[in-house]
Design goal:
Elements lengths: L2 H19 L2 H10 L7 H4 L5 E6 L2 E2 L3 E2 L6 H11 L3 E5 L9 H10 L4 E4 L5 H9 L4 E5 L7 H11 L3 E6 L2 H10 L3 E5 L11 H6 L8 E5 L5 H9 L4 E4 L1 H4 L4 H10 L1
Parallel strand pairs: 1-4, 1-10, 4-5, 5-6, 6-7, 7-8, 8-9, 9-10
Antiparallel strand pairs: 2-3
Helix pairs in contact: 2-6, 4-5, 4-12, 10-12
This protein binds indole-3-glycerol phosphate.
Length: 258
């Protein structure tokens, strides 16, 4: 069993619990009252590098990263620093996140918000929309067969922007077949948790010309952002370095100016 298999088993148990508490019909009713999602594409396509700043308490590779008692305040600092979007980890067991964090961030900031989770069912996309997300992460590695297509289509129907995450050339080919507009390359292999930023350098040339190119993971400082930029990233997604920074607002400014 890989690390990812273990994470997904926990995700499915937690999902079953939530589904027993809130029906899909109830979620759909909430969505019909919710305002339309924001479009992150103008921010992602703006000149220079754009940053997605992540609210991340812990991770399977590093354990506890930061306490984050007030995720909305952290997100406000990210937005003040110029983040193009905020990513909120909502997975509970390994990352210490929740849908409450997503809602708190949504209520605080005007920039687009990404639900970062292991999304494997339509129900989770309805949840994302009901709790105020504008984007939803779809990881190719955990969506075999037609499931990727189905969830990508549903996300678009719900007005969410799908961020399709890849880690291999085959996964990029699957993302391209879908016509995905926003494609991430995760430098972290989720089956082993090893980070190698050069994976982005190697794979970026295979991304479709028209897609928004997102480099995910492994940024320690501005020089790493600059390197991803040289390798063709439009957007860089940063978690750990920002939650550990004493001054996330200045850190983002530095990343953008790098
Ligand atoms: O903390 P880092 O190394 O800056 O990484 C952030 C982000 O890329 C990482 O949290 C991530 C990328 N893809 C994921 C999928 C699920 C959970 C987490 C992730």
């Amino acid at each position: 069993m890989t690390v990812l298999d273990g994470i997904l088993a926990g995700v499915r148990e937690d999902l079953a619990q939530r589904q027993s508490e809130v029906s899909l019909a109830e979620l759909k009713a909430r969505v019909s009252d919710a305002p339309p999602p924001l479009d992150p594409l103008p921010g992602f396509r703006a000149p220079g590098v754009s940053i997605i700043a992540e609210v991340k308490r812990k991770s399977p590779s590093k354990g506890e990263l930061a306490a984050i008692p007030d995720p909305a305040a952290l997100a406000a600092a990210y937005a003040a620093g110029g983040a193009a979007a905020i990513s909120v980890l909502t997975e509970q067991r390994r990352f210490g996140g929740s849908l409450q964090d997503l809602a708190a961030v949504r209520a605080e900031v005007d920039v687009p918000v990404l639900r970062k989770d292991f999304i494997v069912t339509p129900y989770q996309l309805w949840e994302a929309r009901a709790w105020g997300a504008d984007l939803a992460l779809l990881m190719v590695v955990s969506l075999p067969g037609g499931l990727l297509d189905e969830l990508h289509g549903l996300a678009l129907e719900l007005g969410l922007t799908p961020l399709v995450e890849t880690h291999t050339e085959d996964e990029i080919a699957r993302a391209a077949e879908l016509g995905a507009e926003v494609i991430g390359i995760n430098a972290r292999d989720l089956t082993t948790l090893e980070v190698d930023r050069a994976v982005f350098q190697k794979l970026a040339p295979h991304l479709p010309e028209s897609s928004v190119r997102i480099a995910e993971s492994g940024v320690a400082g501005p020089e790493d952002v600059a390197e991803y930029r040289r390798w063709g990233a439009d957007v860089v997604l940063v978690g750990e370095a920002l939650v550990r920074s004493g001054d996330p607002r200045s850190s983002i400014r530095e990343f953008i100016g790098s």
